[in-house]
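Lab notebook, bench 4. The sequencing result for the construct came back, and we need a structural model before the next group meeting so we can plan mutations. Quick request posted to the team channel:

Model the 3D structure of this chain.
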Amino acid sequence: MSDSDEVWQGTGMTSLEGVLTGIVDAHVQHWNPRRTPWAATRASRLYGFVPTLGDRVFPLVVSRADREYILTPRTVARAYEPRQYATDAALVPTVVGVPIDTVVHVESHWRREVADAAEPPVDSTAVEETRYLESLPFGQAGTPRLGAVISHGDPRTRTFATMLDEQFAASPRFRGIRIVASRHPDPRVRDGGDTDNLLSSTAFLEGFAELASRDLVFEASVYSHQLYDVILLAREYPDTTIVLDHFGIPAGVFGPVGVRTGATAAARADIWRLWRERMTTLANHRNVVVKLSGLAMPILGYGHERWGNIGGQATLAEMIGPFVEHIVTHFGSDRIMFGSNYPIDRPNAAVDVLVGALVDCVSQWGSEALRKIFRDTAVRVYAIDDAAG
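Done. Here's the predicted structure in token form:
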């Protein structure tokens, strides 16, 4: 990042006490492989019964792209529900002085397994996921409450409008949809989308009108080289709130992933430069909000060990500092919110490390910025009820 136009200066301040009473984590996923129609159900059950075998088989049966994305099968092979999240987030008050009291669930790639290998209706499984969430014990026994639900949905499908209406019926907390449209030219970097330029396709843009007319939020997960698709969508629908997940995922910016992505210092500098330029352009669209989530995603290139590639809070703050600096400078804190991306980020950083590092980075802008990024922006964007903080 030698050509950076921001030089991050950490403050070392790690406290939210007196700033707010509780944090909103705007990006958490929940699942239970043993009782839900989830894509990883079959493999998850095997791992649950024989975890040591699962660890050994993982490199043999899972593609390199998927291994680099999650690092360890333990991330996805076990149930992750409110109790597990509460355990992971338990140390947050000891680090920043306040707890995480509210979470936003973001769709977790449900796909029903079917005997004839036919693809199930994506829309129906998305509604099932929402009903499952409403059955979980949020806000009980020390677990955070559920503030909002972002489901899966695809505007290209014929039943998209019907699905949106069914989501409203399934949950009073339904606020919008997300599409994972990530596609990468490196064949060993994981693709999430089913086609290139999904967000700018004619079928997608036409179907998107159904979401816009219902005043729903749209979340996009793309790699940084795809940000122009988000720019086009924001331009086409200027009155719809568009949330960019994981600050645009600059894959390989910290180290090599895939075959060649981020393999040299020059390549990493180029990823950083292009991300910065495209994020600056995206910031001109006032309907775009950036989620500071995925800060410890393995695909960023932190390393390939199954656990602990980053180290600690100070190291993480130093690494993400220039990105946070650029985003706050160009978007402003009223268009930024925090998300842990748990449990996907779990192998590289504890929740308290993620929160503490981001507080360190944001503190230089003062209490107002901290309050917006860690609570107020999410409350506004997702219309979270009873969220005094």
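The chain has one domain: 23-381.
Will bring this to the meeting.
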